[in-house]
Specification:
Length: about 80
């Protein structure tokens, strides 16, 4: 085994490197939780602050646009990833 391979395996064992799949799974879980929280925000604000429906509808539109941008960015990243 070459020195570089041993050094890499040691770095992995020390937690200096993580598997791409682990990063991908953790990212997906975090993004799902974020999306769920953001999507519940308009209803929560409407109840807590007695906001009119037209205001919460605008908040929903903004949230949807942001999530669409994130989704599009992720699609570009995945297409660029040869291991995806």
């Amino acid at each position: 085994m070459k020195l570089e391979e041993r050094q890499f395996k040691l770095a992995v064992a020390r937690g200096q490197y993580v598997e791409r799949a682990a990063v991908r799974n953790a990212s997906a879980e975090l993004l799902a939780a974020l999306a769920q929280g953001l999507r519940s925000l308009p209803d929560n604000l409407e109840r807590k602050l007695h906001l009119p429906a037209d205001v919460t509808a605008e908040i929903e539109k903004g949230i949807d646009a942001c999530l669409a941008d994130v989704s599009e960015g992720l699609r570009k990243y995945v297409k660029a990833d040869p291991d995806a």
